[in-house]
Design a protein that fits this description.
By secondary structure, this protein is α/β, with parallel strands linked by helices. It is built from 13 helices and 10 strands. The radius of gyration is 21 Å and the shape is globular.
Length: 387
């Protein structure tokens, strides 16, 4: 989807202003084309046809490090820039190492931070920055009142309000239609069935040293224990599992006939379907924490000691708002909201399209346990696959 089409989709994506949805605050400062978008207000509203006066302080330049897809970032940043007289400088990284690389960059810059906000497509990197003391506490403690407004934050957030998580993406098995039996047979054991879902050499996954695969496998180890997780890795190894530099590359291998089933993110399957690929996915439509299925939140936090503390707080609060979470559910990522009210709204919208919106047991996924298990997971992986 090109930028113009994406912005057009966002303009008509949300509910009407004043719908009463908890946490949805109207962005009266946005251009009129955004009417009905459901974006959260971030700062005092002003007349969209009247230039801002000197009394309205501009947010100024804000540096955003992010591993979110660039088209989603630009589409959601534009109204913030317009409303707050801000310029957001977006810094990304590569598909394979984008989250891990950005986390390392923030850590290397701790003496003189260059970023104001980190918006990540996964959670373990944000947890590390929080434990390193590199995130500003208190940003997501609420309800927060004043010029920013008041809304309930996502239930997925740091204990000190230093980061917030939302917009969940299910981890799924992406498979080739016609080359793999129906999910009820091939994947009856959930993601634990991946090693035997296809003949030897015909299954794959992304390198677990990076991205959402790292968090997912660390969570599996924490949830399953060493014996079961080790046996699962042994099955993968015995079946000649192929390792790819990223989730998109893994699903692309399915499309090109290199493998028949891979572990990936649901949004990568959606992307393949938009391209006309003969692929499907299985991850369950019940509680996503069952059978090894998990949904990864995107996370956002303000960098402590960054160059623009005021701009960082406002941008982080905006990206963590219910309005942005609602819109992310309606982008091509098709994320699952963490807020009950937004989830219920999107569930009704999905039903009108004849689709299902998976339920999520948020409390069942303890990302702190996954964080603690990741070192052990990587060691067990290296024993079998090297790296």
């Amino acid at each position: 989807m090109d930028r113009r089409a994406f912005l057009g989709a966002l303009a008509g994506a949300g509910c009407a202003a004043g719908s009463g949805l908890a946490g949805a605050l109207w962005l009266g400062a946005a251009p009129r084309a955004w009417a009905g978008s459901g974006l959260g207000q971030v700062g005092p509203a002003r007349d969209p046809d009247k230039p801002a006066g000197d009394a309205e302080a501009a947010v100024g330049e804000v540096v955003l490090y992010t591993s979110i897809d660039s088209d989603i970032v630009r589409g959601l940043i534009e109204p913030f820039e317009w409303a707050q007289r801000a310029k957001v400088l977006v810094v990304g990284d590569t598909e394979a190492t984008k989250t891990t690389g950005l986390v390392q960059r923030v850590i290397s810059e701790r003496a003189r931070p260059r970023a104001d906000v980190f918006w990540s497509s996964e959670v373990l990197g944000m947890l590390r920055l929080g434990r390193e003391g590199l995130l500003e506490p208190g940003v997501f403690v609420g309800p927060r009142r004043g010029s920013v407004g008041s809304w309930p934050w996502s239930p997925v957030r740091g204990a000190q309000g230093q980061w917030a998580g939302m917009a969940l993406r299910p981890r799924v098995i992406g498979y080739a239609l016609g080359r793999v039996p129906a999910p009820a047979g091939a994947f009856a054991g959930g993601l634990g069935a991946l090693p035997g879902a296809a003949p030897r050499g015909r299954v794959g996954l992304a390198d677990p040293r990076f991205g959402t695969t790292r968090g997912h496998l660390a969570w599996l180890l924490a949830a399953w224990g060493d014996e079961r997780f080790g046996a699962w890795l042994d099955e993968l190894k015995a079946n000649g599992a192929r390792v790819y530099p990223g989730n998109a590359a893994a699903l692309r291998a399915v499309h090109h006939g290199q493998v028949d089933a891979v572990l990936t993110d649901a949004d990568d399957v959606y992307a393949g379907l938009r391209e006309g690929w003969a692929v499907g996915w299985h991850g369950g439509t019940a509680a996503l924490s069952a059978a090894g299925v998990v949904a990864t939140p995107s996370t956002v936090g303000a960098i402590r000691g960054g160059p623009n503390a005021r701009g960082a707080a406002w941008l982080a609060a905006y990206l963590g708002s219910a309005g942005v979470e609602r819109l992310m559910a309606r982008t091509h990522w098709r994320t699952i909201p963490t807020r009950r009210e937004v989830h219920q709204e999107e569930e009704r919208a999905a039903a009108q399209r004849g689709a299902d919106l998976p339920a999520v047991e948020i409390e069942a996924v303890r990302w702190e346990d996954a964080f603690e298990a990741q070192g052990r997971m990587l060691a067990m992986w290296a024993e079998r696959f090297g790296g």
